[in-house]
């Protein structure tokens, strides 16, 4: 049930379209056991026409399995009801795990059309299960009589989760309200798809071609080379192409001396899906918010935020606002101070203009160089992609003893993808991880981890996980390898932390295994890994000049350390603005009674966000909350930031690679999934609840 519920929660699951040459069971890979090394999906054999029949068959199979549970004449117990549900829907799980990964990282118009078809099918199927009165009656009977059953801790946790999931998804509603809920869920699933497709289209559609080399002033050679290659690939050799994908737009804003072109790029970036064209998301947002609030009230909650947060560590919106407002009060003076410093630099250089958002990254980079004699281009030659990857592997090896073996014999879905088998210190197979490094038009922006196969125990057999890390890193150009920025290095460590959470899972049931935990806990395993990235001891392990092989000099490490708190007013402020915007969208009763841009502006003005800083995500391209799983949950990164900085102190108090501490973190956090309350798990590791001071100190806010 995990995959289905997860997709419902994300709003990704969606009248049938004609499919030519409908395959038979024998030639559809999803109907058969994968005959591939380590059981990875046979990407080389999966065709577009396989998906829809597999979804149809998977829905039919699981519906029959649910009917068998409902009609079982035996008294309901954990095994014949809860466990039977957990292991139902094998075909649906297999096709969902591949299809929804593909629509994120290697999509096409054909896949997008199938998604529009499948979404209402899956929404209806999910509702057919969640709103099945006879099924819920069996679940409730098990729940009410659990004291008489010999259940272990994981089984008790799963039972509680299943019961709550059904209650939270309308099992206690009257028939007419159940029908109303079905319509809401179906419409939401389609709106989320449309929202995400619009953002991708707007990101891909903008192209800034430069044909005058003078307009490249300030841009490093590596960025120019990449832009020249992009233009060549676009059929315009001799020009330079810049896009709204992060490896292109962010360096442009950071280095371009052409203020008018910076403005053009900035405006295009922050106005994606906000251009009153066919890809505009403003009406989609209003519909999504209205439907979410309507659903929450139908289910007995004050608003969508209270509905969402009930099952999070935070529990309610007041606790989220308490944390965010406390941090906002600390960071706002830093934002204003940084703005004043940048304005002073502009004035010093004779600039006769007021600092604007499109100027921030450019002058911040100048100021960093002035303050610390450090700029990004001094560092990047030491951050060759392959070296950073080996650094990640080395850290994980020193902490947990893991080894990584590249597997060229397993099928991959794109030539850029690399597969690694993950082995324990004793050589035992732990799992497999795919790495997909570079941007392409078929891939959405950002970086993420996901699963192709969850770790579970079925019929007494321990099934190992297959996870994926997907990035959008700067591509290699000509004879220059992929050289990562500081942010990209941090992203690599972050996503690999999610990967470890999936790989280390040691649970029985899919509903509570691996990363299937609350949003504000799931970022702990990822964010704690970031802490190792720029430790001097670690940088010496992987930061080697791509030309000479020279280990990064002590002086440069010191500069990186000294500049670590630089710009935290901006970085933390733009993030908190987006987190608060998310919360206000989902708690304000009047949110959709005005224009989307007006609500956004009034909200950010009310917070006191200075005009020189733009919220990290504006509403029309805020995919985390409108087409992802983070609605009323974008705060999770800073909530987990409190956890990860406090948890990292446990290592620092002993040693960076303390084996006992790593063992405890693995056994109490990484292995346990959602088998126990997350705060209880954290206390088992740390011996107490987390403290906020390490976060404030790390970011220079205290």
Quickly give the CATH architecture of the domain at 2-130 and 132-168: Orthogonal Bundle
Number of strands: 9
> The biggest beta sheet, please?
5 strands, mixed
Number of alpha- plus pi-helical segments = 28
How would you classify the helix and strand content by structural class?
mainly alpha
**Helix coverage percent:** 55-70%
Through-space gap between termini: 45 Å
Average predicted confidence as pLDDT: 94
What does this structure look like?
The protein is mainly alpha-helical. Among the domains are: 2-130 and 132-168, Orthogonal Bundle (Neurolysin, domain 3), CATH 1.10.1370.40; 206-270, no CATH class. Helix content is 56%, strand content 6%. It has 28 helices and 9 strands. It has helices at 2-10, 48-70, 78-86, 90-105, 109-130, 133-144, 153-168, 175-205, 221-233, 246-255, 259-270, 282-298, 304-309, 317-348, 357-372, 376-379, 385-400, 486-503, 519-533, 536-542, 554-562, 568-585, 596-607, 623-626, 636-652, 659-670, 678-686, 693-698; strands at 208-210, 240-242, 403-406, 417-423, 429-436, 448-453, 456-458, 461-463, 466-470. Strands 3-4-5-9-6 form a 5-stranded mixed β-sheet. A hairpin with a 5-residue loop joins β4 and β5. α5 (109-130) packs antiparallel against α8 (175-205) and α17 (385-400) packs across α20 (536-542).
């Amino acid at each position: 049930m995990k995959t289905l519920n997860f997709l419902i929660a994300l709003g990704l699951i969606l009248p049938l379209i004609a499919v030519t040459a409908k395959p038979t069971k024998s030639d559809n890979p999803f109907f058969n056991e994968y005959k591939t090394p380590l059981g990875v999906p046979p990407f080389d054999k999966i065709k577009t026409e396989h998906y829809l029949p597999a979804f149809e068959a998977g829905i039919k199979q699981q519906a029959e399995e649910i009917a068998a549970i409902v009609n079982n004449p035996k008294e309901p117990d954990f095994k014949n009801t809860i466990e039977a549900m957990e292991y139902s829907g094998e075909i649906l799980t297999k096709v969902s795990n591949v299809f929804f990964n593909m629509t994120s990282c290697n999509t096409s118009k054909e896949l997008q059309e199938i998604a529009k078809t499948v979404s209402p099918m899956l929404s209806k199927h999910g509702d057919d299960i969640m709103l099945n009165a006879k099924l819920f009656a069996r679940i409730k009977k098990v729940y009410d009589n659990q004291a008489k059953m010999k259940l272990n801790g994981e089984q008790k946790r799963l039972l509680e989760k299943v019961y709550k999931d059904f209650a939270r998804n309308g099992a206690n509603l009257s028939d007419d309200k159940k029908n109303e809920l079905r319509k809401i869920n179906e419409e939401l699933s389609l709106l989320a798809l449309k929202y995400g497709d619009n953002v991708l289209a707007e990101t891909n559609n903008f192209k800034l071609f430069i044909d005058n080399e003078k307009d490249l002033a300030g841009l490093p050679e590596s960025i120019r080379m990449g832009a020249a290659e992009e233009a060549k690939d676009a059929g315009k050799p001799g020009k330079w192409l810049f896009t709204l994908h992060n490896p292109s737009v962010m360096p442009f804003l950071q280095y371009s001396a052409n203020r008018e072109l910076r403005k053009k790029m900035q405006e295009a970036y922050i106005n994606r899906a906000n251009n009153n064209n066919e890809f505009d998301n403003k009406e989609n947002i209003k519909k999504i918010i209205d439907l979410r609030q309507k659903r929450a009230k139908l289910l007995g909650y004050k608003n969508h935020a209270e509905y969402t947060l009930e099952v999070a560590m935070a529990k309610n919106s007041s606790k989220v606002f308490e944390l965010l407002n406390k941090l906002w009060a600390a960071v706002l003076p830093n934002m204003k101070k940084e703005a004043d410093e940048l304005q002073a630099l502009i004035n010093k250089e004779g600039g006769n203009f007021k600092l604007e958002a499109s100027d921030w990254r450019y002058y911040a980079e100048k100021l960093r160089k002035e303050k610390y004699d450090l700029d990004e281009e001094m560092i990047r030659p030491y951050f060759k992609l392959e070296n950073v990857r080996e650094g990640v592997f080395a850290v994980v090896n020193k902490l947990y003893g893991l080894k990584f073996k590249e597997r060229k014999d397993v099928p991959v879905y794109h030539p850029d993808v690399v597969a690694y088998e993950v082995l324990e210190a004793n050589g035992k197979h732990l799992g497999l991880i795919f790495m997909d490094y570079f941007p392409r038009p078929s891939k959405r922006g950002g970086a993420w981890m996901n699963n192709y196969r969850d770790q579970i125990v079925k019929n007494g057999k321990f099934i190992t996980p297959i996870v994926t890390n997907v990035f959008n890193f700067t591509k290699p150009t000509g004879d220059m390898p992929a050289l990562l920025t500081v942010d990209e290095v941090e992203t690599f460590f972050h996503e690999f932390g999610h990967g470890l959470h999936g790989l280390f899972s040691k649970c029985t049931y899919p509903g509570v295994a691996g990363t299937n935990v609350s949003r504000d806990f799931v970022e702990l395993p990822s964010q704690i890994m970031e802490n190792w990235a720029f430790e001097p001891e670690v940088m010496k392990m992987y930061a080697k000049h791509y030309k000479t092989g020279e280990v990064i000099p002590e002086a440069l490490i010191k500069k990186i350390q000294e500049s670590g708190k630089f710009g935290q007013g901006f970085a933390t402020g733009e993030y908190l603005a987006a987190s608060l915007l998310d919360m206000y969208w989902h708690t304000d009763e009047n949110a959709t009674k005005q224009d989307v841009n007006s609500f956004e502006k009034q909200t950010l003005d009310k917070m006191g966000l200075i005009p020189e800083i733009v919220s990290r995500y504006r509403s029309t391209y805020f995919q985390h909350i409108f087409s992802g799983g983070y609605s009323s949950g974008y705060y999770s990164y800073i909530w987990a930031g409190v956890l990860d900085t406090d948890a990292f102190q446990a290592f620092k108090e002993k040693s960076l690679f303390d084996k006992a501490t790593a063992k405890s973190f693995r056994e109490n956090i990484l292995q346990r999934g959602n088998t126990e309350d997350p705060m209880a798990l954290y206390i088992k590791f740390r011996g107490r609840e987390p403290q906020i001071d390490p976060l404030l100190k790390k970011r220079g806010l205290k």
